[in-house]
Amino acid sequence: MSIRQERVQSQLIDILSEMIRKDLRDPRIGFVTLTGADVSHDLRHAKIFISVYGDEEARKQTLKALNGAVGAMRGEVTRRAQLRIAPEIVFAYDEGIERGQKIFQILNAIEEENKQNPNPTETTPEA
């Protein structure tokens, strides 16, 4: 990944998060956090990853609202980031956080099980 791509990714996250927080007035947009961005080498395509607080329906509604507002955001993003070409922006749900929470829950369950049964049955090797 080039330095230019990394800089544009960082700018996109900053600009879009500010726009979502201040400019978008869609009631379907819930508590959303931009978790990352993936910009193509030619800077023409950008996939923005989001995390949404809430249930599956809240995620769907937020994604629908954000992807519907992309047209209005593209020009502003291009102007603020001083890009020559407006990137095609697509919002996608970041499942990494959810996977991390599931792993954390599994590890906690194993730890609780070990606390309840501190001396597991020791098996002796057969001779």
SSE run:
HEEHHEH
Q: Helix segment count?
A: 4
Helix and strand content put the structural class at alpha+beta
Average pLDDT, to the nearest integer? 88
Query: Which quaternary structure do these chains form?
Result: single chain
Tell me the radius of gyration: 21 Å
Per DSSP E runs of 2 or more residues, the count of β-strands stands at: 3
- What proportion of the residues form beta strands (DSSP E)? 15-25%
Secondary structure: helix percent: 40-55%
Residue stretches low in confidence (pLDDT < 50, at least 5 long) are none
Describe the structure.
This protein is an alpha+beta fold and 127 residues long. The protein contains four helices and three strands, in the order H-E-E-H-H-E-H. The protein has a three-stranded mixed sheet, with helices on one face. The longest helix is centred in the last third of the chain and has 21 residues, at 96-116. The mean pLDDT is 88.
Summarize this entry quickly.
With 127 residues, the protein is an alpha+beta fold.
Question: Helices and strands in order, then pairings?
Answer:
Blueprint: H1 3-22, E1 32-39, E2 45-52, H2 56-68, H3 70-81, E3 88-93, H4 96-116
Parallel strand pairs: 2-3
Antiparallel strand pairs: 1-2
Comma- or semicolon-separated keywords:
alpha+beta; 4 helices; 127 residues; three-stranded mixed beta sheet
